Amino acid sequence: MLTTILYRSHICEGITVQAVEEMVASANGKNSHANVTGILLYNGTHFFQLLEGPEENVKEIYHHICKDSRHYNIVELLCDYAPARRFGKTGMELFDLREYVHEDVLQRVLDKGTSRYQLKYDDRALQFFRTFVESTEKENYFEIPLADSWEFVADDEVQLLPRQAEVEDDEFSFAFQPIIDPLSREIVALEALLRARDGKSPADYFASLQGDALYEADLRSKRTAFALAAELGLKDHPLSINLLPLTLVKIPDAVPYLLQEIKRFGLIPDQITIEFTESDVMSRIADFNRAVRALKAEGLRVAIEHFGSGFAGLLLLSEFQPDKIKINRSLIQDVHKSGPRQAIIQGIIKCCTSLEISVTAVGVEKAEEWMWLESAGISAFQGNLFASPALQGIPLILWPEKNTNY
Ligand code: C2E
Ligand code: MN
User: Fold this and answer.
1) For the domain 2-140, what is the CATH code?
2) pLDDT in tens, 186-221
3) CA 193–ligand 1 middle distance (angstroms)
4) Is 178 in the pocket of ligand 1 (CB under 6 A)?
5) Can you list the alpha helix ranges (DSSP code H) found in 232-310?
């Protein structure tokens, strides 16, 4: 199927226009052999390329392009299908935008095209040409340094002492994972994650329970979470726990039970954030809201996690505004390379900023993901890049430090 890929990237220092021309010339032969056509725009700093052809060939060539060390910050903007090529002349043409006067340049680019309609029918690919040529999206291009410009180092001074609690022979236990602000070197909170004894994931553990036993287990397990947090000496660090939204709705004494257990272990309600996924909330929004009001009246904070991965996201947010939103790995993964993910996360951040809701990124594994998210304005992070969850323990945190050899 005729496939189109559009990407943008940043030229590496020291690469001359001549070198770019030579690169295009050598790519030309390969592309025409693979029946891939397109155009490469260059503005002195950025490349913007369209590749069109059979799906497999386009993807293979793009994969190759991503590995080229002459450019970096390669962001895929569009991958789509079309009935005909937009730039169907053989090979790959290099178009240096600087050689044309500004008013004229978009039309000159489009004149290179082979599609009949140019911008007439709101073609997404051609609209991307317009935004690139007119530089209207430029403030959203974050120049992320290479991954090895940072080292991740344990630092005694900002560490919660790694330690392990006594093992209790219970049906489940908890692992703790820090949420940190890497640049201010602060621990924002610790999250208690349920661990079943047989190694099942929280989702599988809950799936093995029937009916209201599920909500009972979810609620009563929090006693263990609070007990462990107290034993691990959380001091005044905030603690996050997870609950299914329906646990609050289905169990009438859920709120008094939580408060009683928080106090039993010497914790204070203001220290605790309860994280809910957005699933099932909308069907019981009035009951959920009532339970949340009771929690808030006691000083607890509320977060919505896995934001954007369910169907209720934006509708839920219009009805209910939490203190915090957590974006999880499914949206974070390789965000530095993906135009759609970048646009969605920027949208979430903008919306949360207007509502004074703080945003946490969860599941950060790569330095580039973290750097992109920092540039976009997020400052709270949870992920294996900094610290993996520790069973019944507090893990060592690795803090980013500028690599001095760099
Ligand atoms: P969550 O609350 O968003 O927790 C973060 C999940 O991401 C955890 O998975 C954690 O191990 C994982 N994670 C953290 N950093 C990374 C990373 O860098 N890479 C990858 N690949 N994963 C990372 P876990 O512990 O399996 O928990 C999954 C979900 O189960 C949680 O997502 C939460 O929604 C739910 N859950 C956990 N404990 C409880 C609980 O006590 N009650 C309820 N109702 N749900 C719970
Ligand atoms: Mn959570």
Assistant:
1) 3.30.70.100
2) 999 999 999 998 878 898 999 999 889 999 999 999
3) 6
4) no
5) 245-250, 254-264, 285-297
Sign of CA dihedral 272, 277, 280, 286: positive
- Domain extent listing, the chain: 2-140, 147-402
pLDDT digits (tens, 9 = 90+) for 221-280: 999 999 999 999 887 899 999 999 999 999 999 999 999 999 999 999 999 999 999 888
Ligand 1 atom showing the smallest separation from residue 328 Cα: 3
Please name the fold of domain 147-402.
TIM Barrel (3.20.20)
Mutation pick for ligand 1 pocket among 172, 191, 205, 242 (CB with most ligand atoms within 8 Å) = 242
Q: What angle do CA 158, 372, 138 make, to 5 degrees?
A: 140
Instruction: Give the pLDDT confidence score for residue 371 in this predicted structure.
Output: 97
Mutate-to-test residue for ligand 1 from 193, 274, 386, 392, highest number of ligand atoms within 8 A of CB: 193
Give the ligand at the shortest distance from the Cα of 382: 1
In the three-class reduction of DSSP (H, G, I as helix; E, B as strand; rest coil), residue 233 is classed as coil
Query: What residue's CA is closest to ligand 1, atom 33?
Result: 242
Whole-number Å distance, alpha carbon 241 to ligand 2 midpoint, is 7
* Secondary structure of 317-362 in HEC code, one letter for each residue: HHHCCCCEEEECHHHHCCHHHEHHHHHHHHHHHHHHHHCCCEEEEE
User: Which value, in Å, is the radius of gyration of the alpha carbons in the chain?
Assistant: 26
pLDDT tens string 106-121: 999 988 998 877 767 6
pTM of the model: 0.92
Residue nearest to atom 8 of ligand 1 (CA): 193
Atom number in ligand 1 closest to CA 241: 41
User: Which amino acid is present at 205?
Assistant: Y
Sign of CA dihedral 110, 112, 115, 116: positive
